[in-house]
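Re: the request from the purification team.
They wanted to know what the chain is likely to look like in 3D before they choose a buffer screen. I agreed to run a prediction and write the result into the notebook, where they can find it.
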Amino acid sequence: MWLELPVVWIGLLNGLGIPLLQLGISWAFTRMPRHWFDPSSFPFSPWGAWESAGMYERLFGVGKWKQLLPDGASWFGGFAKKRLRTRERGYLEVFRWETCRGEAAHWAQAVALSVFLVWTPMPWAWVIVAWAVGSNLPCIILQRQNRRRIEGILARREGVA
């Protein structure tokens, strides 16, 4: 903690600020141009040959919990990614790009939450760290898994896989 504030202010700043920050970042990312989120570029491209859609299921059991996550983009008029609506190539391409946008938004949220550590004393600062990881990492994992699955569908359609 670098800034000492009264407990009431800390509670208000964190209680209101954390959800507003996360929602604000989600809203801002739905307004950014899609071409900023290229699936073939880092950090959205596969991190190695080991990364596959099946890896996320085996390692994290994504299928058991993915339906519990909200689709924040649809709250702000963004692209709904809760379920695959069709297997048409154009839709799949857009969906793939939108998983990059979602992943980037969650990375940004996780990093931005660190600002709350400036005034939050220990041990409460660990709660914010746990929140940043717990509220964003599952979403990042799901976006990466969905992108790998969509890439597999597209590759099979092209006869590559």
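For the purification team: Residues 67 and 83 are 9 Å apart (CA to CA).
Please add any questions underneath this entry.
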